[in-house]
Amino acid sequence: MIVTLAGGVGASRFLQGLMKVVDPESVVAVVNTADDVVLHGLRVSPDLDTVTYALAGAVDPERGWGVADESWAVMAALERLRPSAPDGSTAGVTWFRLGDRDLATHLYRTQRLREGARLSQVTGEIGRAWGLRCRLLPMTDDRVETRLVVAGEGEIGFQEYFVARRHAVAVTSVRFAGIAAALPATGVLEAIKEAQRVVIAPSNPVVSIAPVLAVPGVEEAVAARRDDTVAISPIVAGAALKGPADRLMAELGHEPSVVGVARMWAPWAATLVIDEADAALAPAVEEEGVRCIVAPTVMHGPAEAAALARLVLSL
Amino acid sequence: MIVTLAGGVGASRFLQGLMKVVDPESVVAVVNTADDVVLHGLRVSPDLDTVTYALAGAVDPERGWGVADESWAVMAALERLRPSAPDGSTAGVTWFRLGDRDLATHLYRTQRLREGARLSQVTGEIGRAWGLRCRLLPMTDDRVETRLVVAGEGEIGFQEYFVARRHAVAVTSVRFAGIAAALPATGVLEAIKEAQRVVIAPSNPVVSIAPVLAVPGVEEAVAARRDDTVAISPIVAGAALKGPADRLMAELGHEPSVVGVARMWAPWAATLVIDEADAALAPAVEEEGVRCIVAPTVMHGPAEAAALARLVLSL
Fold first, then answer.
1. Nearest C-alpha of chain B: how many angstroms from A74?
2. What pTM did the predictor assign?
3. Which of A52, A108, A109, A121 to mutate to test the interface with B (most CBs of B within 10 A)?
4. What is the pLDDT of residue B16?
């Protein structure tokens, strides 16, 4: 069994590669849910959905999230209602683009949760509908919410930061509301314990991987598997390939480099894979007490992703 | 001011006619909400939406409800998720067809209600977005639910009866759960009190008009205006033009004829308009203590609807 701690886009690229080199049924992804959001009454789980669509081969290849060949009829109609919404209402918001096919996932999930199903059950059902053969687990069935304090503005939710503000504002702190009372979803700790390999995917360390680790019990479980845990740096040449990981790391006092990543993951991962662009930093990474492997980590396509997965398994 | 007590399709046809013969701003429709339903977490108000789309000139002319030129991408995607839903779950139900444009209305409404807005406010906002110039009021801002006891089966909700079972099961009783505690929406009683004319639309008497009257205070308000109240029979030649009004009336002990309608509305309406097909029953209607007007009531199109509205105003 291979367990991957996963965010959205970066993780799903890696997982697509992993599926090509091992039996998909041996793969477990433990996915961040701290950026889940309720929009228009619907429970949206962006990272779970990104991974699901990606592994189903249905993800939009341009955006890296959402469904390919998506239509946008509902958003277009909501756009027409927006002028009626009073100030301060988010009833007409369309900055969070919910495609028509994607909406069906949210309708399904919302109804199942209303029926009392756990998110992990529902995630399994949605995964089966999309033909997934691996196991996708939300990090927790409980509600955890990433909240970010924006300088001069106060606290906002993750999607407001990420989508509405396009992560173009300075963040002074991050917390995961509800995390202290959250329990790992059934199967998460067991999978980490039994895995031959635990992988920390090249996802945003601060807002994708940190919440997964912060679910009570997960840090300890991963720490106990430190020798078998391999992290892949999402920072290449001092920058995130996608998203605000580099900025967020810097704003929150982490060096936005593979060395900063090594420092963050050193308690949990004995090995860090960094990109060839950062080869010169390998000694500095190893000074953090982490074995450093230099390899091509930028996954332009399935071939690179499979090669990276093969490498991670071979270590 | 003209107040119309309204259900869905039949009422909206009449209201379309009314708009053509009076200043729309003088029209108030008090609309049934007892068949509102929460589907996939979304609050759906079928009668309010039917009237809104109809008066906006956007209703689907074939179905009489929903938006014309609707697309169904979300339903099609939900259909693909359905096989994953466990037995008894309604997460994958697609029998209640929510079109893409229609869904935007429900997303908007659901979010506004979550923000604490009253249904009447939200209804006004949606109406303005669709360019309505008349006033649409839900009968109440409170949650009322039509529940029907089906012989040999127990109690089911209205949409399950109406849509899922296509009203092809025998009903032994109907109740409006929550009605005793419901308050008329702001403006409902005032409008009835001040109207020059109150109209009981040709909607299903048992499940569309009865709940409106059953909101505490409405019966008394309409009874006080009995002389100025005109009902239009939804029963023509012993049958409903659309839907199960005739069957429901018979099952619940009302004669499914214009005489039965006269008996139902006699306490509230001094005048009943019946179709020419029922001319022979006019004396029997008048025996119920109701003035009977015989006229063409079948609204094939805008011209007939306008003529009927003109007649109702002239009485």
1. 5
2. 0.94
3. A108
4. 97
pLDDT at B229: 98
Flag the least confident range among A152-166, A184-198, B46-60: A152-166
Question: Which residue, A110, A117, A114, is CA-closest to A49?
Answer: A110
Q: Is the Cβ pair B110, A41 closer than 8 Å?
A: yes
| Binding-site residues on chain A for chain B (CB distance < 8 A) | 38-43, 71, 73-78, 80-81, 83-86, 89-92, 100-101, 103-105, 107-112, 114-115, 117, 122, 125-126, 128-129
ipTM confidence score: 0.92
Q: Which residues of B touch A (CB under 8 A)?
A: 39-43, 71, 73-78, 80-81, 83-86, 89-92, 100-101, 103-105, 107-112, 114-115, 117, 122, 125-126, 128-129
Residue-range domain boundaries for chain B: 2-149+178-314
Q: Is the pLDDT of residue A96 over 90?
A: no
The tokens describing B24, both together, are 């729309």
Per-residue 3-state assignment (H helix, E strand, C coil) for chain A = CEEEEECCHHHHHHHHHHHHHCCHHHEEEEECCCCCEEECCEEECHHHHHHHHHHCCCECCCCCCCECCCCCHHHHHHHHHHHHCCCCCCCCCCCCCCCHHHHHHHHHHHHHHHCCCCHHHHHHHHHHHCCCCCEEEECECCCCEEEEEECCCEEEEHHHHHHHCCCCCCEEEEEEECHHHCCECCCHHHHHHHCCEEEECCCCHHHHHHHHHHCCCHHHHHHCCHHHEEEECCEECCEECCCCHHHHHHHCCCCCCHHHHHHHHCCCCCEEEEEHHHHHHHHHHHHCCCEEEEECCCCCCHHHHHHHHHHHHHC
For residue A121, the distance in angstroms to the closest alpha carbon of chain B comes to 10
Once rounded to an integer, what is the mean pLDDT over residues A286-313?
Answer: 97
With pLDDT > 70 as the criterion, what percentage of chain B qualifies? Answer: 100
Residues of B in contact with A76 (CB under 8 A): 104
CA B81 to chain A, closest CA, distance in angstroms equals 5
A165-169, B41-45, B235-239, B281-285, range with the lowest pLDDT: A165-169
Partner-chain contact A105 B40, CB within 8 Å: no
Q: What backbone phi and psi angles, to 5 degrees, belong to A94? A: -130, 10
* The listed CATH number (3.30.70.260, 3.40.50.10680, 3.40.50.720, 3.40.50.300) that belongs to domain B2-149+178-314: 3.40.50.10680
Pairing of β A197-200 and β A2-6: parallel
- Interchain pair A110, B41: CB under 8 A: yes
